[in-house]
Amino acid sequence: MSAAPPRGPDAPWSDPDCPVARTLDLVGDRWSLLVIRDAMDGAASFTEFQRRTGIARNILTDRLRKLLAHGLLAQRTAPSGRRQEYVLTDAGRALFPVILTLRQWGERHAFAPGEAHSVLVDRHGDPVPDFTPVGTDGTPLSTDTTRVQKTRQA
């Protein structure tokens, strides 16, 4: 089991036993997820994140630092060699299903029928099919077919 990401003494976990709460502590604000979304779409520079999101410089600086500190983004030298750029780590890329699920929920519930919106497409240009989590037997999962089970420390 990997260790939890570092947290400052002034920032305790909001609910130390809940994976959802811990995740929201790390990326639960609007700007962090939009930065992750844009990194997944190829944004790499501070300027590009700011242009795409419209976020204030001080807030973007804070979110980038937080995402770096928690291992969701890493910095590397840009191909030009003149500046640093931001790239997703494995942990950052692992948020893809979260972004996909939020996107698909938004397509169904955040737009009026017929209202224009962006569409996520695969490498062939086809719209990405609806994401549906399934159980070990292949049947779709829902709130009716799952439950939270508390674990005990050994």
TrEMBL record:
It holds the Pfam family HxlR. Signal peptide: none annotated. InterPro entries: ArsR-like_HTH, HTH_HxlR, WH-like_DNA-bd_sf, WH_DNA-bd_sf. The keyword Endoplasmic reticulum does not apply. Residues 139-148 have a biased composition (Polar residues). Keywords: DNA-binding, Transcription, Transcription regulation. Residues 18-114 form the HTH hxlR-type domain. Residues 130-154 are annotated as: Disordered. This is Helix-turn-helix transcriptional regulator. It comes from Streptomyces anulatus (Streptomyces chrysomallus).
